[in-house]
Amino acid sequence: MRMVDLIAKKRDGETLSTKQIEDFVQAYTAGQIPDYQASAFAMAVYFQGMDEQESAALTKAMAASGDQLDLSRIAGTKVDKHSTGGVGDKTTFILSPIVAAAGVPVAKLSGRGLGHTGGTIDKLEAFPGFETELDEDTFINLVNKHKIAIAGQSGNLTPADKKLYALRDVTATVNAMPLIASSIMSKKIAAGSDAIVLDVKVGSGAFMTNLPAAKELAQTMVNIGNELDRRTVAVISDMDQPLGRMVGNTLEVKEAIDVLQGKGPEDIHRLSVRLAAHMLVLGGKAKDVETGEVLANDLIRDGRALNVFRDFIANQGADSSLVDHPERLVQASNTVTVEAPASGYISSIDATDIGRAASMLGAGRMTKEDSIDHAVGVEMKAKVGEWVEKGDALVDLHANRDDVTEVASIIKESYQISDHAPENRPLIFQEML
Fold first, then answer.
1. In this structure, are 315 and 185 located in the same domain?
2. Which of 187, 278, 285, 398 is catalytic?
């Protein structure tokens, strides 16, 4: 079929065959289809959508367009977790050692951050010497021996998705739900795990800012995963304010260690345990999510999860004593407090603005070539629902420069203070199996 015929078929709301989708992905990846035709295809999908079979076929074809990790040499059910992105999201560092401590292998490929969201690999590199570029044999051997390894994604992982996403970004088709879901799931399928837990964020700091859209994305990805024989669960969680109290690479690592020590903020602890519980169910270590939560909390309480995290850091080349002495990790030279301009309840916080403020300090990058400063970030002293007096600290800015006037201004604008306490917003909105 000619590309123009395929575009017309989707434009008219017809269903594309698996072969037609595979042929499109292969030809586009190979440079045999011009961008203007691929753009027309993306726009047709934007308006007409795709059914479950089409979305699964697109996902599988994009996963097959580049490197795919074969995890068959790893014993047991491999369970992966993916977050759709947020501010202060450090759940990976908490749930991975919990799950590994229970005997479920965690073989995770992660990426770097771009924009206001932090990247797992960037945060791990807060540990000097931590090795994220692992060859396949080393990666698999680490998981078989220690039940956990986290490595950077291959440069040739899902090249079709990289090419199509760059096109969608400049043709106003980023928000096409089947294309979003296939983009995310193609990387998870290529990463080789048997089961997947999805943390779909919703709120001011998330890609999906409203609940109906988040539900649609979650259900689409669950359908794709199950269609491709990957047991898939989605948890829709709140990102209307940053998760936890810390935003920034080293700051978030320290907070994750706090949680593994049985301390830390309640929200990050509760979400990490819930996600871990789903992974334990999928990995065959818990009969249901409630039992999984009990097990996860036990693994934190008795120190086994922290021991696994300590070994994980050592196994990938860094100094594991830093886990017990996180104060020796790199720290910013200055701490600047942003004060509340009035007394009242914190009624809302724009999470994207907090992430943007951290990036401006150097915690994130605007282009892939930018370097990051692991030490800097934002420490949340007040969160939604809490009362502050005028002059109390809203945040502490951890900075390596003297002038933070612009960043402080963004912080003040991100906070809304009211005479009335806001309604409680759930941490977890829905779970889809």
1. yes
2. 187
